[in-house]
Design brief:
With about 220 residues, the chain is of the alpha/beta class. It contains ten helices and six strands, in the order ααβααβααβαβαβαβα. The chain has helices at about 10-20, 25-45, 55-60, 65-75, 90-95, 95-110, 125-130, 150-165, 180-185, 205-210, and strands at about 50-55, 85-90, 110-120, 135-140, 170, 190. A six-stranded parallel β-sheet has the order 1-2-3-4-5-6. α2 (about 25-45) runs parallel beside α4. The two termini are about 25 Å apart. The model has no long low-confidence stretch (mean pLDDT about 90).
């Protein structure tokens, strides 16, 4: 948020931060802050939950990332399986050998790994199966017209079935209606995120939301 420009979209901010190199310290601050917040929620008795944090391509390619994550997990006392790191399909498959090694190192820490925006890049199934991932995220571009568009239905169904055959979970992004939720649930999608559940919330309001919806998978 800028005092002169107001709220700045991530679509504007992140490319500039990546180009300038600032994304590395910013990303480190975000991840460290997220773990501190998760620790605070756990200390108040909030049920264990998984907190997902996006990794930029620049941040993911830092050799020291696994050691940093291990250090922050230890310092915060957060169970590793409560942290999920998300990276886009394009980043994960850009340099397959490096990505496999980095993701295996992160997986050995016990954190969960997810591929964001799945289906929007140039997927390589032979490379995908080598990645130490736990979840595929169905991109919101396939969810928006899911109820009426046969092509989107076919793509979403294929992703869900692919994930299931590989022993992975699926989560659909951008779910805004009960009809989309019902369709995804019927096809076996494991979880959803989107405005149908809630808009983005500050930490205190999110805690109240979780306490009010115990047992609801989000």
């Amino acid at each position: 948020h800028s005092s002169s420009m107001g709220a700045v979209s991530p679509a504007e901010f992140i490319p500039l931060a990546e180009a300038s190199g600032l994304i590395v310290p910013v990303g480190a601050w975000v991840l460290h802050s997220a773990l501190r917040q998760l620790r605070a929620w756990l200390d108040t008795g909030l049920q264990p939950l998984t907190l997902a944090v996006n990794l930029s391509g620049v941040q993911f390619n830092q050799p020291e990332l696994p050691a940093q994550v291990a250090q922050w997990l230890h310092a915060s006392g957060v169970p590793p399986d409560c942290l999920e790191l998300e990276l886009t399909e394009a980043v994960a498959l850009k340099n397959p050998q490096q990505a496999v090694a980095q993701m295996q190192a992160l997986s050995r820490l016990g954190v969960r790994l997810a591929i964001d925006d799945f289906g929007t890049g140039y997927s390589s199934l032979s490379r995908l199966k080598r990645l130490a991932i736990d979840k595929l995220k169905i991109d919101q571009s396939f969810v928006q017209d899911l109820v009426t568009d046969p092509d989107d239905q076919a793509i979403a169904t294929a992703i869900i079935q692919l994930a299931r055959s590989l022993g992975l979970r699926t989560i659909a992004e951008g779910v805004e209606t009960a009809e989309q939720l019902a369709w995804l649930h019927h096809r076996g999608c494991d979880a959803i995120q989107g405005y149908h559940l809630s808009r983005p919330l500050p930490a205190a309001e999110f805690e109240a939301f979780v306490r009010a919806h115990r047992g609801l998978q989000v």
